[in-house]
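Lab channel / #folding
Pinned by the channel admin:
"Please post every new chain as: sequence first, then the structure tokens as a reply. Keep commentary short and put observations after the output so the thread stays searchable."

First post following the new format, from NK:
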Amino acid sequence: MAPGVGGKEPDGFQGRPLDELDGPEFLGGIGVSVKVGELRPRPELADKADSSAVPCVFAPDDSRVAWSCGDRKVVILPWNKHKNCLVRDNCRDADGSQLCDQEVVLSTGLEVCAMAFWLGLRQPTDGRRGSWKRFDFTRTPVLATGHPNGRVRLWSLETGSLMLELMDHRGAVRDIQFAPDDSLRLVSASADKTLKAWDLTDDGNMFKTLSDCRSPVLRCSWRPDGKQLVACGQSKLLYVFDMVDYKRQMVLEGHYNEVTSCSFTCDGSLIVSSSHDTRAIVWDAETGKPLRTLFHLNPPPRLIFAAGENGAWVKAAVMSRAMCQTATVCEDGLVRFWHPWQSWEEPALSVPVPRSSEEEIPTSCAYNAAGTVIAVGTSRGAVTFLTVPKYIPPLSHLARRAVRRVTSGRQVEQLPLPGAVRGFLCYAH
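Reply from TO:
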């Protein structure tokens, strides 16, 4: 297996090959999370890692992962979705056939603060573009990278070459997200306190600036239907935007310290956020009402401790697109898994994140598209891949998820159903 383009290992890249793993033990069991891979930069690069950056992202089809390995390089590694691991660790699919193991190295020339995949439209349409354009992103798979100089760069996944550079931000680009509705919109979040929307059907033209945030914006997340966007930054607030009219819809207040991440559920009905106040909060995406609080210290600290150093800063919270499962990572070194059909008072499972020292803390987490593996990034740029614990959700939860995919909370309130049923469908209990 080639560790890099042309079989050459990139500078700063230190792979961690695993023993050949296969069979049921490789995937873990019911209620069990198993380490299935690790990526770790060389020590001299780990010391320079940007602890606020997300070091690893999955492609939407689980075909590959992108890892910011340091030294201003990004490595695109093939992912074996049949075995839930990197192809370099197991290169056989479910039928035993050999998988392509070529890895691509992008020399970005700048530190990488954010990354996002775009693989083209699921059903490309020849007549979509209307007039001649320089690039056809309906068919072109790319990786977008955000940089400290305020620029967003689009790289070809086929050739590894730079295709396009988007320039308008005046501060570091901390997050970038492609719209999940195939509208070819890209949103970037920046330290200049703005979010910008770019139109890839028009060669990346910047067509809207959202400047309603009061502090640097660190994270953003699309609603699955592309109609809303939630953003957070170096403040206690979250901002929800209408991405049809491009206006601020709501400001969510409830955290006592800096908000570190935000994410929608797969049905678009809930938002989960994490904060340095030791908590993650689940919000109603339609009304902005807080529904549940996920405590990482019990008993919860008093306000004066929640607003300062408390030893339990929650660094990230993310919702699985497949199962509506929530994962959180905390500076206590644990990744916690929470389920909406169980009590929110305690996590279903807590797993320690492998670390080289006590100073290395988990700072990010990301599910793969299938919701079977989670990648946990650390303050030293390392990434650990863990299987997601398997649980069988009750039929009531699956029914609620199906209803909420097509029915808003206000529509649920109008249904001729008992109050307890309406409350259940609205995640009130």
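NK: Residues 314 and 330 are 4 Å apart (CA to CA).
TO: also worth noting, The mean pLDDT is 85.
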